[in-house]
Design a protein that fits this description.
Number of strands: 8
Helix content: 40-55%
Oligomer: single chain
Number of helices: 7
Length: 266
């Protein structure tokens, strides 16, 4: 895919590793706290398992039409538990920013519009969450003023999209800025809006008192761009005025806690 064909649909950066707050917000069965809202590990697993089950059923049904037998690998979606929590936390924070801004979020994006390229059946809760998030991020993206971003930030976005194979590899900073519409004074490229949205969510996360279980850090805010022919789903490291934060100190996880189960990557 040539770089110039990348057009933003709803793209945001990712939240840094939010430290565990006071008040004992470190229960091992809680994946994240956003204010008084708890997102349990069981809730994350429930959404993840539902996505896996519905994906496997859809693949099996399609293969059955030709008499083929899918392999175990073919029956597993690339969705991860991290992806699930990214959506839950981002939607929560996004709703808080929307409320503070006095904005209305129309229900425009349906799961049916995303299922083919998300590769998750529309009936799956994961697909429904994505539809909700795209609506929220689009409203906020249109309201928040864009900000200036550094070359390092631009290249962080490029690197994340490059990993998906949706953009040409080996581009220079100047080429990436042109591809993303970031050239010229006051350019309105999507990375500027992405950074503004990321900053708003980061600020709200700190205001609400957000705590993330060590195994799920850092939280990535879900991102998607359109190539003009297809959607590219990805996640980024935190973007700031000086570039992505790559060295954030976080508390060590207790020895009794193990890492989240490994799942296939995107």
């Amino acid at each position: 895919m040539r770089a110039r064909r990348l057009i933003a649909a709803a793209s945001v950066a990712a939240l840094g590793a939010l430290s565990l707050g006071a008040c004992g917000k470190s229960a091992p069965d809680v994946a994240a706290y956003v204010g008084d809202t708890r997102y349990s590990v069981d809730r994350v697993d429930e959404i993840y398992d539902n996505a896996q089950t519905m994906y496997a059923a859809a693949v099996s049904a399609e293969a059955g039409q030709t008499g083929a037998t899918p392999s175990p690998e073919q029956l597993r979606t690339s969705v991860t538990r991290q992806d699930v929590l990214n959506l839950l936390v981002s939607i929560d924070l996004g709703k808080r920013v929307v409320a503070a801004q006095g904005l209305q979020v129309p229900d425009e994006v349906k799961p049916e519009q995303l299922e083919q390229q998300l590769r998750i059946p529309a009936a799956a809760e994961y697909a429904k969450l994505w539809g909700e998030w795209v609506d929220i991020s689009a409203v906020l993206g249109a309201k928040l003023p864009p900000v200036e971003v550094s070359d390092k930030s631009i290249m962080a976005v490029y690197g994340a999209i490059e990993k998906t194979g949706a953009i040409q590899s080996g581009l220079s900073v100047a080429e990436v800025r042109q591809a993303f519409g970031e050239t010229g004074e006051g350019g309105g490229g999507f990375v500027r809006g992405a950074t503004a949205l990321s900053s708003a969510l980061q600020e709200e996360a700190e205001k609400a008192g957000t705590s993330i279980h060590p195994r799920y850090r850092p939280i990535g805010v879900p991102s998607v761009v359109s190539t003009g022919q297809s959607l590219v789903f990805y996640s980024l490291p935190y973007i700031g005025q000086d570039g992505p934060v790559t060295d954030i100190s976080t508390p060590e996880a207790p020895a009794t806690e193990s890492a989240a189960p490994a799942t296939p990557g995107v």
